[in-house]
Specification:
DNA-directed RNA polymerase subunit omega, transferase, two-stranded antiparallel ribbon, mainly alpha, 70 residues, single chain
């Protein structure tokens, strides 16, 4: 899947709110950087921000009380 498609799908998951998406990606990327396991496959060459976006696009991460929950 291309980056534009992933971003579009992730935006749809958060009601097209770019601010919420940015917050969710930042929080999840921080969790991944701290050692959290990725919830998607084939992430060996991906950066934590890209993994976070893909997780959101695939519905693995949801917005719960204004925070990202895995």
């Amino acid at each position: 899947m291309r980056a534009e498609q992933i971003i579009t799908k992730a935006l749809q998951k958060v009601g097209d709110d770019r601010y919420k998406l940015a917050l969710m990606v930042a929080k999840r990327a921080e969790q991944l950087g701290a050692g959290a396991s990725a919830l998607v496959e084939n992430t060996s060459k991906m950066k934590s921000v890209d993994i976070a976006l893909l997780e959101i696009a695939e519905g693995k991460i949801i917005l719960d009380n204004d925070s990202a929950e895995a």
